[in-house]
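Here's what a typical entry looks like (Heme A synthase):
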Amino acid sequence: MNATTLIELGLTGLLVALIPLSLVWRAKGFDNKYRKLVWVTMFFTFDLIMFGAFTRLTDSGLGCPDWPGCYNHSNPLLAHAHINAAQEAMPTGPVTWGKAWIEMTHRYFAMAVGVLIIALMAMAWRRWIRSRGAERQYRPWFPTALLGFVCLQGAFGAWTVTMKLQPVIVTIHLLLGLTLLAMLAWLAARQNPHLPVAPSGRALVWPATIGLALLTLQIALGGWVSTNYAALACTDFPLCNGKLVPDMDFEHGFTLWRHLGMTADGDFLPFQALTAIHWVHRSFAFVVILYVVWLAHKALRDEGLRKTGRWLLIIVGLQLVTGLATIYLSWPLAIAVVHNGGAALLVMLLVMLNYKARYAPAGIAEADSQPAVAAPLGSV
């Protein structure tokens, strides 16, 4: 790819990033600008994950079969001859005008997130150097790690395309995106004051950590369902293909290194393998739901964690409803995208819960506790 195309792609990412950056620069004072940039970057990353789910669920991942451009161009309009030829050869194939624009829009948003993180890192380093390390809230190590992580995520985005949507690569790409969101949620939690947390809330440090680990495993299983197109392997509930325990092929279903739709030996993936993938994700979902509901119930007992616990219950309920709807309604696109977004929201909420349980101001016993620090409007 020539330098002109790379410059055009970089400028496009910068232009997209200017929209959230303009909102940030309207804030008064460096502290407010930095805090707002952290939160804006987190929510922009959440939007990117949602659009990534839309890209994957519309089979647009190979809409432009090279990377980072589209047939060595910065946008599909310049690649019209290649796209027209591919679409005429396969009207419903992986390359069409609609899929090309969806894929490139996803890449533009990803580049914009990179620009936002660079701006975040630059602000942190500038303040850290000027204060000679006196202002610990601007320690630049975490923002710098974010930049390294987003570069790693970009590499897996490239491999997703060049390795033709190999399931394990696409699943890792999803998990890295959610890890980036979790890191931003942790950084965002550091920017806001929080209500005091009583000793009972402090006791949730390890349960909250376990909850985040269980959710991560469930998201990995969900990503494996999505990247293997196994969402409709079971079309009934609570049974699966009329059985409580259907015929399943775990060996082929959970062989990680293989091409999409194929076994490791190069044969077509049997339907029983897709059933195993779907059934494991569905079954483990109830373990995660029960645990998170229990964790949220514990959080509701503490004033400092109550709002986060309440939102956990709401989003878990949303996940249950959208998960069942994808089965009964044969996987409608909008509901499937919302289901992916719900998983991302749960990641953010559990990260917030982990942060508050560890670092919120210490409170006294619940019976005598009084809120000492007002939480900002809308904080979770």
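Residues 97-130 form the longest helix (34 residues).

More examples are in the samples folder.
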